[in-house]
Model the fold of this input.
Amino acid sequence: MDWIYSTDDPLLQTLAGSLIIFIVVIILTRIIGLRSFAKFTAYDFAFTIAIGSIISSILTSSTSIAHGSVAVGALLVLTFIFSYLQRAVPAINKLISNKPLLLMDGSTILEENLKYARIEKGQLIAKLREANVLTYEQVEAVVLESTGDISVLHTSSSSDDEKLNKSLLEGVRKTP
Done:
């Protein structure tokens, strides 16, 4: 039964460590800002996964709380620095960020873009269903965002009353 519970398990240390790391993450997030755990770019996502892994190591006693807190703090400071550099040096933004890619232009599925992005037509159609699209004519645009998410911009009906504001597609690549 040791695989369920062992008297050697540091349960109180784990509870104390959970509370301490919770407080540390809140303090660091308040200092660094709301963008700390945003998912704007692939590196944001990677940092979030890395922080989760560090917290897991702390809670399973593989790493000390002090060591883990410094590692989490360092990663959060790096995200802060990279977010600043992205604004200050446009070349860095181009280097580390993917530009969004148009997958559908109106009701037209852009097959080359799907192929380039390695997205199957069935996956695209599933996203249209998730967005409650009833007909292709409702679709204004479908965008593969730099985070890997897919955004579906559509009207609620096939009437001409609602049209896409083209500024919403600013920075979106039409070809790979």
Remarks:
- The mean pLDDT is 87.
- Residues 11-95 form one domain.
- The first strand starts at residue 101 and ends at 105.
